[in-house]
Amino acid sequence: MEKTFSGRVIELVLGDITHQRVDAIVNAANSTLLGGGGVDGAIHRAGGPAVLEECRAIRAERGECPTGEAVLTGGGGLPARYVIHAVGPVWRGGDQAEAELLASCYRNSLRIAAELALQTVAFPSISTGIYGYPVSLAASTALGAVASFLTTETVAPTRVSFVLFDPVTFATYAGALDAL
Ligand code: AR6
């Protein structure tokens, strides 16, 4: 399923983000940047030690990555050229600026992609696994943030994929994209 915004496409894919042959995949990382479970674990396993090395170097230089922000590394052994490591918010009931922080993750990731003039970027459903963000709320915030970036920015990727790992998450994003 896909939808076009100012000539740029948002598409939904049911699958594994580590298999995507795109300019950059986005990781749902944590502030330490040193890896974890979920999609973060899968990306580090597939990307190999080169990705972790770069994360360690960034951490040594700049410290932890704040929630809502993102950093760039190479893709190591992944088919993607780069990994953008974004830190999503932990769901704490919805009154701790979770929606704004989640939208920031997507915007800051796309800003990094735009700075490098990348054309194709793939996102997972940030924060809706271990971090407990309800999928129905995350889907409209994520899609809204990306659609608004693609509509308003002069330089932006031409194709943004959401690579969703399970059919329920896929169906929820499909409903939210349809409603956008
Ligand atoms: N491809 C695409 N999506 C995936 C994959 C995959 N290979 N594997 C899991 N998902 P999560 P979070 C989905 O928990 O909630 C880590 O420990 C998963 O089904 O990976 O942002 C980090 O280090 C879910 O829909 O990320 C942080 O500490 C979505 O990716 C913490 O988890 C996000 O789930 C971040 O938690």
The CATH homologous superfamily is named Leucine Aminopeptidase, subunit E, domain 1
**Bound ligands:** ligand AR6
Number of strands: 7
Q: What is the CATH architecture assignment?
A: 3-Layer(aba) Sandwich
Order of helices and strands: EEEHHEEHEHEH
Mean pLDDT: 98
Structural class estimated from helices and strands: alpha/beta
Specify the number of helices. 5
Helical coverage, percent range? 40-55%
Oligomer: single chain
Assign the CATH class: Alpha Beta
| Tertiary shape | globular
Can you tell me the CATH topology?
Leucine Aminopeptidase, subunit E, domain 1
The low-confidence parts are none
> How are the strands of the biggest sheet laid out side by side?
1-2-7-6-3-5-4
Overview of the molecule:
This protein is α/β, with parallel strands linked by helices and 180 residues long. The chain has one domain: 3-Layer(aba) Sandwich (Leucine Aminopeptidase, subunit E, domain 1), CATH 3.40.220. The chain contains 5 helices and 7 strands; from the N terminus they run βββααββαβαβα. The protein has helices spanning 38-47, 49-62, 98-115, 135-152, 167-179, and strands at residues 2-5, 8-14, 24-29, 70-74, 82-87, 120-123, 159-164. Strands 1-2-7-6-3-5-4 form a 7-stranded mixed sheet, sandwiched between helices. A hairpin with a 7-residue loop joins strand 4 (70-74) and strand 5. It binds ligand AR6. Ligand AR6 is lined by residues 16-18, 28-30, 36-40, 42, 88, 124-131, 163, 165-166, 169. Ligand AR6 binds next to strand 3 and helix 1.
